[in-house]
Design a protein that fits this description.
This protein is an all-alpha fold. It has four helices and no strands. It has one domain: Four Helix Bundle (Hemerythrin (Met), subunit A) (Up-down Bundle). The protein is 86% helix and 0% strand.
């Protein structure tokens, strides 16, 4: 049905990366301010974009952050925050290997 080559996927991901980095900056700022509601909001925003391009690792972390952010569960937010950068790096590594 779809003709998605590695080049097309990488094209999508290359457009996705600046958008992702901007949202992660917002998540980091909210995290630094210990403001859980914006963490949840921006995680939701990034989750949607990540799902669209197939960056499922980022989407999974963001979905979890969105949920625990709503509850202001700082123990879980602290743990998940540590997973965001490695998930992002896996997408960068994928792009670099294509």
């Amino acid at each position: 049905m779809f003709d998605f080559t590695s080049a097309k996927i990488c094209g999508f991901l290359n457009k996705f990366m600046p958008h992702t980095e901007a949202i992660i900056t917002e998540i980091v700022a909210a995290y630094g301010a210990r403001d859980a509601q914006p963490v949840s909001f921006f995680a939701h925003k990034l989750k949607s974009s990540a799902c669209t391009v197939g960056a499922n690792g980022i989407a999974d972390v963001c979905e979890a952050l969105e949920n625990v952010g709503r509850d202001s569960d700082w123990i879980a937010i602290d743990e998940l925050n540590q997973e965001l950068a490695p998930a992002m790096q896996r997408v960068k590594d994928f792009i670099d290997t294509q």
